[in-house]
Design a protein that fits this description.
- The structure is a single chain.
- This protein is an all-alpha fold.
- The protein has helices at 3-17, 30-40, 45-58, 62-66, 70-76, 83-101, 109-113, 120-130, 140-148, 158-168, 174-187, 206-229.
- Helix 5 (70-76) crosses helix 6.
């Protein structure tokens, strides 16, 4: 099985497991999505959604974020990690959107990445989910799963992981693959306690095989101890 065949097998399996995978950040327009993804850095989507439930009621457009003192915005997102720097970036990007883009989020990767707090991953999420432009955003789940399944090397950086996925995954499947890899990593192939015993991709996962082997050794030792007591 060559690399593309292996990738096709992985794509088919995760499609069966998570056919309805989607962006779990609540939003109703490109601007809200940009804010939500910016807030999600080093923070769970669940926490972000709790914060944006009230945040997006109070702030509808870039002008609204600039209409309050920075300290007030900080308090509105204080449950989010790194809330001070994120609040500052939200006000800075709001100013750029007003001055340069008539208050609208730019529908280009270049325009997005020039916004404070918006890196390549955030830009990819916005481009694919808000503007339907195929993209693969590599977050912690995508990175971990790609390396465990041998799609990327353990020492690859996120850009190298992204390039390898773009090469192996058909372009029309980039966005849905991004979501399915996230779901696979978030709900199945977790960082801690991955579900290796029931994983349909265990045969492709070197780490999973080692984990199972170690688990079996521990189990056998425990059984021998019990037998010895009997």
């Amino acid at each position: 099985m060559n690399a593309k065949q292996k990738m096709r097998h992985i794509l088919d399996i995760i499609a069966e497991m998570f056919p309805d995978a989607h962006c779990e950040l609540n939003h109703s327009n490109p601007f809200e999505l940009t804010i939500a993804v910016l807030l999600s850095a080093q923070c769970t989507d669940e926490t972000v959604n709790k914060v944006t439930a009230s945040l997006f009621q109070k702030y509808k457009q870039p002008e609204d974020y600039l209409g309050v003192p920075l300290e007030e915005l900080e308090q509105d997102i204080r449950r989010i990690g790194l809330f001070r720097s994120k609040a500052s970036n939200i006000q800075k990007l709001s100013r750029i959107l007003i001055d340069k883009y008539d208050g609208e989020v730019p529908a280009s990767h270049e325009g997005l990445t020039e916004l404070p707090g918006v890196g390549r991953k955030t830009a990819n999420v916005v481009m694919s989910n808000a503007f339907d432009v195929p993209a693969i955003a590599v977050d912690t789940h995508v990175d971990r799963v790609s390396k465990r399944l041998g799609i990327a090397k353990l020492d690859d950086n996120v850009l190298e992981v992204e390039k390898k996925l773009m090469k192996l995954v058909p372009q029309e499947e980039w966005t849905v693959t991004h979501h399915r890899l996230i779901f696979f990593g978030r709900y199945h192939c977790k960082a801690q306690n991955p579900q290796c015993p029931i994983c349909p991709l265990l045969d492709m996962c070197k780490e999973g095989k080692q984990r199972m082997k170690a688990g079996n050794k521990t189990k056998n030792k425990a059984e021998l101890k019990i037998a010895g007591r009997g």
